[in-house]
Write a structure and sequence with these properties.
heterodimer; A: mainly alpha; two-stranded antiparallel sheet; 2 strands; B: ABC transporter involved in vitamin B12 uptake, BtuC; 15 helices
């Protein structure tokens, strides 16, 4: 029964990983830029949730929406002020820009909120559920299910709507999209906004069951890299599948070897993918 | 070499050699030694990150290997830290091989991500491994048993050891710049596909550059361990160790011989000043500032300060030419 519980817990957290990784993979697919600061976006989403709850007594739905809106704006700003200018420059500039953003955001949070952990109160979603002997904590259950639906939503947005088609058209061929009357700049700004929003909501969801600190983004960013690589760069369904797998591996390795080593297994998996199947599960070779 | 260039080198040499003799205050001697140490590690990073254009953000793993090995050997068998240095280099080169072989077949971002993931992986492992001191770290010899322990009370001997290593590294880099190896690397940096189509063995040469870079970064780590006689997962393997290398090289000029030294000469004093200004909370503010500088460099001046200087210089020369057209016509 413990084993089933470990699996359920892993899948639920994996769904949240899938959500913020979907944002990262979308940006990569659009313009071959890796956002090293993506984990800090998630961290900021967590703090938005915390402060909205503390100052305004916002409920889970309220602070998740607020995190989505604020991080959407941050994503668009970052694109307009920074990424737009470096994306066609040397690779050094691309990597430096988001790496600098990572340092800036992480230590700004460190400075503003101090290094201490803060937490949202338990029981925001009521008591834990007992499903056939498996004990599921309510925040993880809500977080996992909402994240899974939202990731599915991003996929549907991309594949079933006009805006999604325009985004994919720019990703496919910027020049050709421009000739079809699509403004690539707008679509790319939108992609950064969506990436920010996905990270923001994911952060708000994680904040309901995980301690919040300025450095939490570090391991989350690396998890997103692993998920995106395993799923295949640019593939949202790939990120969804890979997020669940990574959540499972993390949960099982924490159970069998201790929580300290869960990251070791996840990063080890990353190195293994690079050797064995670098284009990921659902990516194009 | 033009006379002006030769004179510039002589002045630089005199300044670097004379610095600890002219400024006898231990504070400045320590500062000078730290600048040189930073310049060594950033120059080593520059080989792969600057010349070959493959941006590593996890070079701390090589630095850490170089720093841990001498102290480990001392703790296990009481050996001189010098004997651990080759072991540190060997470990670094092996790690470089395992990062480089899979990622250099792929687009550049894979390499950056792999470096940071491997560095974190090893930092976590070392931080939980009692054999390597876990989160407490390792200590070196407190009192020297002989010169071979390389424990000096004064900073001056360290300063000259660092200067000698930096000189060797920069001399080798200068030779490399003019060799086939150097030309291959700049071709790879300018455009990998074009380089490959011209017959450059791209993957192999990137791997060589990474291994040489890792070896020298390990040397920098060993020197750090010898000077401070102490290493823990954060000071040896932390992400900020990597950040320092990238930032120094990029600020001065990545892919330029003297870029890392210039960057170190600016950033090390800046870091020490901000740390003492802001006190205990200083590290946070220092890195906010670093993040800001990195974004500004990336956005406005990815070639670093040396390229900016070149451009201003060239503009001045053009203006001088425009002002006296008849003399040049004659």
């Amino acid at each position: 029964m413990i084993f089933l519980q470990v699996i359920a817990g892993g899948l639920l957290i994996g769904a949240v990983y899938a959500l913020f990784s979907a944002g990262l993979t979308l940006v990569w697919g659009m313009m071959n830029v890796i956002n090293f600061a993506h984990g800090e976006f998630v961290m900021l989403g967590m703090y938005v949730a915390f402060w909205a709850y503390t100052l305004m007594h916002a409920g889970p739905a309220g602070f998740s929406a607020l995190a989505a809106v604020l991080l959407f704006m941050l994503g668009v700003f970052v694109y307009l002020l920074l990424i737009r200018h470096v994306m066609r420059g040397p690779m050094l500039a691309q990597i430096l820009s988001t790496f600098g953003l990572l340092l800036f955001l992480r230590y700004a949070a460190y400075w503003a909120f101090s290094a201490n952990f803060v937490t949202l109160p338990e029981g925001l979603f009521g008591p834990s559920l007992n499903v056939g002997g498996i004990l599921l904590s309510a925040p993880k259950l809500v977080g996992g299910v909402v994240a899974l639906l939202l990731t599915l939503g991003i996929h549907l947005l991309l594949t079933r709507t006009a805006v999604g088609s325009q985004i994919l058209a720019v990703a496919e061929d910027r020049q050709a999209a421009m000739l079809m009357g699509i403004r690539p700049d707008r679509m790319q700004a939108l992609a950064w906004g969506l990436a920010g929003a996905s990270a923001g909501i994911a952060g708000a969801l994680i904040a309901t069951f995980f301690p919040i600190s300025p450095t939490v983004g570090e391991s989350l960013a690396l998890i997103a890299f692993v998920v995106v690589t395993l799923g295949g760069f640019g593939s949202v369904p790939g990120a969804m599948l890979a997020g669940l797998i990574v959540g499972l591996i993390e949960s099982l390795s924490a159970y069998y070897f201790g929580p300290v080593y869960q990251d070791v297994f996840v990063y080890g998996l990353f190195v293994l993918i690079l050797w064995v199947r670098p284009h990921g599960l659902l990516g194009k070779a | 070499m033009r006379p002006a260039t030769a004179a510039g080198w002589i002045v630089l040499g005199v300044v670097l050699v004379g610095f600890p003799l002219a400024l006898r205050d231990p504070y400045y001697q320590q500062l000078g030694a730290l600048v040189l140490l930073g310049a060594i590690s950033a120059s080593a990073w520059n080989l792969i990150g600057g010349y070959a254009g493959q941006v590593s953000v996890g070079h701390a793993v090589f630095f850490g290997a170089g720093a841990y090995m001498p102290l480990l050997f001392y703790n296990l068998w009481g050996w001189s830290p010098l004997l651990g240095l080759p072991a540190g280099i060997a470990v670094s080169v092996v790690i470089a091989f395992f990062i480089g072989v899979p990622t250099f077949r792929l687009a550049g971002h894979y390499f950056s991500m792999a470096t940071i993931a491997v560095a974190e992986l090893i930092r976590i492992l070392v931080g939980n491994w009692d054999f390597l001191g876990a989160s407490i770290g390792l200590m070196g010899p407190a009192t020297p048993r002989g010169w071979w322990d390389l424990v000096f009370r004064s900073t001056v001997p360290y300063y000259y050891i660092f200067l000698a290593v930096l000189a060797v590294l920069l001399a080798l880099t200068a030779v490399m710049e003019r060799s086939r190896f150097g030309y291959y690397l700049s071709a790879i940096r300018a455009g990998e596909r074009a380089a490959r189509s011209l017959g450059v063995p791209v993957g192999r040469y990137k791997l060589y550059a990474l291994m040489v870079s890792a070896a020298f970064t390990a040397v920098a780590g060993s020197l750090y361990a010898m000077k401070f006689g102490f290493i823990d997962p954060n000071s040896g393997l932390g992400i900020l160790v990597s950040v320092n290398m990238v930032l120094m090289a990029a600020l001065g000029g990545a892919g330029r011989l003297l870029g890392p030294l210039l960057g170190a000469a600016i950033l090390v004093p800046l870091q020490i000043t901000t740390n003492s200004l802001f006190g205990g909370g200083g590290t946070g503010l220092t890195y906010i500032l670093y993040g800001g500088i990195i974004m500004l460099i990336a956005r406005f001046e990815p070639g670093g300060l040396l390229e900016l200087w070149d451009r201003i210089h060239a503009r001045g020369r053009r203006r001088a030419l425009a002002a006296e057209p008849e003399r040049h016509a004659a």
